[in-house]
Structure formats: structure tokens, C-alpha cells
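hi! just following up on the protien thing from before. the input was this:
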Amino acid sequence: MTDEHAPSETRQRGLKTMSEVYGFDLPNLKGDPFYEVTVDHLFADIWNRPGLTMRDRRLLLLGVIAAQGNAEIAEIQVGAALRNGELDADQLREIAVFLAHYIGWPSATKLDGAIRKTLAKDQKK
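and the predicted 3d structure came back as:
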């Protein structure tokens, strides 16, 4: 007999992957359509497709976030990359230098600032 309140296999896989991506546990919110699609599709399915490692996906995501100039989300992803051991401080700094040539200095400056801020927080721990 199954527990009707237990998360589905897809939801469990999505929540597990979200926790791996972000480096901390996230709640199982019910009744929020955007959250449900995020967990059940993006994290359960897309982040678990074959062909790319978690690190590969993180690098791609950092490039997209940097191109959008979203420093707040970059801080979350930089912190997760550090916590998960996917990227180290030197690699993160090099990403900002590399991307500056493709996405422009203003957007890369935001990424570099997010990296510096996250590294400073990490050193205080």
C-alpha cells in the first residue's frame, strides 16, 4: 500500500537533484504550479539527462546567468559550485575573465563581484 501523501518518484528525484544543485535541502511545496514544474520537469528530468555532468551544467548555467547580468542568482550558483566541489576559487575567477570577452565587461563585472562576495563569505566560515 502506498502513502498518498508521499512524494512521487519524479518529485523525489527532482527534490534530490535540486538539493545537489543548490547544495542545501529545499522544501516539497505542494500546490504551487511554478515550483512543481521546476522540481518535476527541470530538476527531475532536464538536470538528469545523460551526456553532461553536474559540473558541465553548472558551467553552462553560470555563463547564462552572467550573460543576463543576474548577480544575485550568480551568488547562489557560485556558492553551490564551491560547496559541491565542482569549481574552486581560481576556476571561478577565470570564468569571469573568460566570459568578459563574450558577454561584455558590465555583465562579467557583476559575475566577478558575485564571485568575490561569495568567496569572502566562504573565508569567514
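Residues 105-124 form the longest helix (20 residues).
Residues 54-124 form one domain.
cheers
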